[in-house]
Amino acid sequence: MSAHRVELTPSFDGFFRAEYPGLVAVASALAGSIDDAEDLVQDTMVKALLRWDRVSRLQRPGGWCHHVLVNACRSWFRRRRTRSQWLARQRRVEPSSAAPSTETLVFWSAVRELPERPRIAVALFYAGEHTIAEIAAILKAPEGTIRSDLTRARVFLANQIGIS
Questions:
Q1: pTM for the structure as a whole
Q2: Would you say 91 and 84 are in contact if contact means Cβ atoms under 8 Å apart?
Q3: Residues 31 and 49 in one domain
Q4: Is there a domain that residue 1 lies in?
Q5: What is the pLDDT of residues 9-34, one digit of tens each?
Q6: Would you state the torsion angle of the CA atoms of residues 15, 45, 47, 54, taken in this order, to the nearest 10 degrees?
Q7: What are the CA-CA distances from residue 34 to residues 25, 114, 143 (Å)?
Q8: For the chain, which has fewer Cβ within 10 Å, the N-terminal or C-terminal residue?
């Protein structure tokens, strides 16, 4: 008599396929570059795979990945800021960049000017399509704080680029 084996946890492959697009959207919104975003998401997914026996049993494994991704983005921003400051000290000329060519690039550029938590909340809300409750869980902040962050971010963005 052959016994059928029942898998109690979802496969990592299926989890990866389901979560990857949303993670890349959030990381792209925060980092401003699809290449950097994909690197950050790959690092996040490697961490999930290495801990899959524990992560797969969580109520929201995707939430865990978003939390890890947000922390990775924070570290990426710190490294980028440190590198930028070092380069600025090495040369006398301020670095310049070309203006974005589309409204979307303008929007996300303005988003990246927001303070850290509102910037991450906007990315999770608009790019990641998360609810306020999910964002609050990912950032470990009260829902009211997230609502306030999003409201203030909208006002800031409206003033910066004229959107409502």
A1: 0.57
A2: no
A3: yes
A4: no
A5: 458 999 999 999 999 999 998 888 88
A6: -10
A7: 9, 20, 29
A8: N
